[in-house]
Specification:
525 residues, 84% helix, mainly alpha, single chain
Length: 525
């Protein structure tokens, strides 16, 4: 039964992984366009901060608290009352949440200048940087409403077993936003506007497509929206009740983002951009498995918790950790060793200089240290939601803020922008350890021996991967142009083959679940 549950998670994660892979590739294309056109200077720094302001609330509401709370309540109502009543709940929730988010958007438009100065005080040292950031913020703030719609639509579809479409919607966002940005890059300067304006408009247009690509599927499943806001509805109140501790906890996460942006803005021109490019690269592998497993584990864990099958839940959780670790550990090793050639290949074009490559690679290597902890956190948090203990992730988030703030404050004068990346990694690691410790207090003894055996075998495979990656990096120093890219790609592929061959030989079996899931899907096709 436990293996069956874990394989179901792998199958759900497979669907999300395919979609997220496409999204992350398009996201990298988007970052390449930004790097080539704008490098790491004034316009890019302004864009990063302007995009981050509505994104703080997006992560807080749309893709964090709202998504998790809505999936749990929607699934419970579907189980208890049937689909018809659940659709009515969805309309009430969507209406109420929509009004709340529109109010936040209006306030954001009004107070944009103050938000920019609060988030990036260092921008005041550069002429026109605050004004440009404010202008871009006002263009992109409506994206918050659109991504909130997308989160609710995706939550409904996930609850009904549809994972691919909500996940692929973010790929459509990247496609539309980058194509719009490239087109307008050549148009908006004719109207006296900075070229980066086109990228901001692309974000809003991409958000429209991201939300409404899911609408036809919802209608096909029977959903008919009625504008019926109701804060007193039991289901809506339950959603907000579940959201409350998560919002508080995620506010701590966003406080970390605020702290990092604040200190990066005082580290000189380009620092905000280097960190943003690096985090985007680190987030590619995390999105491929960490986010996918997070989405897939919640429905399974919720069912096991509701049935009182806690022993099965513990085994499912540990197996999920091994699935996540089997991809997070090699990704971290590879990115730490190959950070410079990867950044050089992807970003060093146009206005993105070798200095930008060096600084972005340093930040990427430091961010990647926490990749395993970040992935395990994303797998662990849904288990607390399934157990009805959302306050625990909240506490862990505040712990992470404390670690991050104290470290970056101590190190920024010595390490400059690199202190931001290192402090973030150490804070995420501390948060992960806290969650693992508290989950055992909540569930009782976990099968750590099984996890330890699996991790030791993964460590052997990672050692072989690291040695090969180091040889690839050494060989790349004498290459230029097309051959550089070919050898780097071939080297990464060879590292993956060696790694998975050793996992197949040594174990753990969970290390191949996602790969087997893909191969089985291919055979069926």
């Amino acid at each position: 039964m436990t293996q069956e549950s874990t394989r179901k998670i792998a199958q759900g994660a497979r669907a999300v992984t395919v979609a997220v892979f496409i999204s992350r590739i398009l996201g990298l294309v988007r970052e390449q366009v930004l790097a080539g056109f704008f490098g790491a200077g004034l316009q890019m720094d302004a864009y990063v901060v302007a995009y981050r302001i509505p994104n703080l609330l997006r992560d807080l509401l749309a893709e964090g608290a709202l998504a998790s709370a809505f999936v749990k309540v929607f699934s419970e109502w579907h189980e208890k009352y049937g689909l018809k009543d659940t659709w009515l709940l969805a309309s009430r929730a969507l209406s109420t949440i929509g009004l709340l988010v529109l109010t936040l958007v209006a306030l954001g438009e009004i107070f944009a200048p103050y938000l920019v100065k609060l988030l990036a005080p260092g921008f005041s040292s550069f002429a026109g940087k605050v004004e440009l950031s404010t202008f871009l913020t006002r263009i992109m703030f409506p994206f918050l409403f659109l991504v909130s719609l997308s989160a609710v639509f995706g939550g409904m579809l996930n609850s009904l077993g549809t994972f691919f479409l909500p996940a692929i919607s973010s790929a459509l966002f990247n496609l539309i936003s980058v194509s719009t940005g490239v087109l307008l890059y050549f148009v908006v300067p004719r109207f006296g506007l900075p070229a980066i304006t086109g990228m901001a408009v692309g974000v809003v247009l991409g958000g429209i497509f991201q939300a409404f690509i899911q609408w036809p599927k919802l209608r096909a499943l029977g959903f008919r929206f009625r504008f019926t806001p109701s804060i007193t509805d039991p289901g809506v109140r339950e959603i907000f009740k579940l959201m409350a501790p998560s919002v508080i906890g995620l506010s701590a996460v966003q406080l970390n983002v605020f702290v990092n942006t604040y200190f990066a803005s005082i580290c000189g021109q380009g620092a905000v951009s280097w960190l943003a490019y690096a985090f985007r690269l680190m987030y590619v592998p995390l999105g491929l498995f960490g986010v996918a497993l997070q989405v897939a584990i919640l429905p399974v864990a919720s069912r096991q918790a509701a049935q009182g099958a806690l022993e099965n839940l513990k085994k499912t959780y540990i197996s999920s950790l091994l699935m996540g670790s089997s991809l997070a550990l090699p990704s971290a090793v590879g990115l730490i060793i190959l950070a410079h050639p990867v950044v050089r290949l992807i970003f060093e074009h146009g206005n993105f200089t070798p200095v930008d490559t060096q600084n972005t690679a340093l930040a990427l290597a430091l961010f990647s240290v926490a990749l395993p902890a970040y992935a395990l956190t994303k797998i662990t948090v849904p288990v607390f939601y399934a157990l009805g203990r959302p306050q625990i992730p909240m506490y862990s988030s505040f712990l992470a803020v404390g670690i991050n703030l104290s470290l970056v404050w101590s190190l920024v004068k010595v390490m400059s922008f690199k202190a931001v990346a290192l402090s973030t990694s150490l804070a995420l690691t501390g948060q992960c350890l806290f969650l693992l410790f508290y989950l055992e207090l909540t569930l009782g003894p976990l099968p750590w021996r099984h996890l330890g055996r699996g991790l030791s075998r993964l460590a052997v495979a990672c050692l072989a991967l690291g040695l090969l990656a180091y040889l690839v990096k050494h060989f790349l120093t004498s290459l230029q142009g097309l051959w550089f890219g070919i050898v780097l790609f071939a080297g990464i592929l060879a590292c993956a083959v060696i790694y998975f061959a050793l996992v197949a030989l040594l174990g753990p079996t969970e290390g191949l679940y996602l790969l087997e899931s893909f191969l089985q899907r291919r055979k069926k096709a």
